[in-house]
Amino acid sequence: MDCIFCKIANGEIPSAKVYEDELCLAFKDIEPAAPVHILVVPKAHCASVLEADEAVLGHLMAVAAKVARENGVAEAGFRCVVNTGADGGQSVPHLHVHVLGGRSLAWPPG
Ligand code: AMP
């Protein structure tokens, strides 16, 4: 399958990896929208949260919290975002959790 996050997960495309385990990978977003902007992605292809296994979803959120702690934004606060579909602004059709922090984030999103 021609999926950029599958290629990152299997090492075909390099990434700035910050965490990896048997189920998922976390790496820095190539176009950071905040001082800390990390993507947590499952290794097994899954197009979006609509198709995701419950255990995988729970694991991705636990890893999001872990990378937030390890990258110094847990205390000040951070945001986890899962864009889904066209109106949700999803541009890569492989499930991913954005972990954003390091500045005060506006709400609501645009
Ligand atoms: P979304 O728009 O929610 O689907 O998010 C996709 C994210 O993937 C965007 O923030 C992109 O900057 C990011 N992205 C795309 N290609 C890469 C890449 N090769 N390495 C790291 N991040 C990427």
Describe this structure in words.
With 110 residues, this protein is α+β, with helices and mostly antiparallel strands. The radius of gyration is 13 Å and the shape is globular. It contains 3 helices and 5 strands; from the N terminus they run αβββαβαβ. The protein has a 5-stranded antiparallel sheet with strand order 1-2-3-5-4, covered by helices on one side. The longest helix has 17 residues, at 54-70. The mean pLDDT is 97. It has a single domain, classed as HIT-like (HIT family, subunit A), CATH 3.30.428. Bound molecules: adenosine monophosphate. Adenosine monophosphate is lined by residues 4, 13, 15, 29-31, 39, 83, 89-92. Adenosine monophosphate (AMP) binds next to loops.
Brief digest:
With 110 residues, the protein is of the alpha+beta class. Helix content is 25%, strand content 23%.
Mind describing the biggest β-sheet? 5 strands, antiparallel
The arrangement of helices and strands along the chain is: HEEEHEHE
Report helical residue fraction. Answer: 10-25%
Rg, Å, rounded:
13 Å
> How many DSSP-defined strands?
5
Q: Which distinct ligands sit in these coordinates?
A: adenosine monophosphate
State the CATH superfamily name: HIT-like
CATH T-level fold name: HIT family, subunit A
What is the element layout, followed by pairings?
Elements: H1 4-9, E1 17-20, E2 24-28, E3 36-42, H2 54-70, E4 78-81, H3 85-88, E5 97-101
Antiparallel strand pairs: 1-2, 2-3, 3-5, 4-5
The chain binds adenosine monophosphate.
Adenosine monophosphate (AMP) binds at residues 4, 13, 15, 29-31, 39, 83, 89-92.
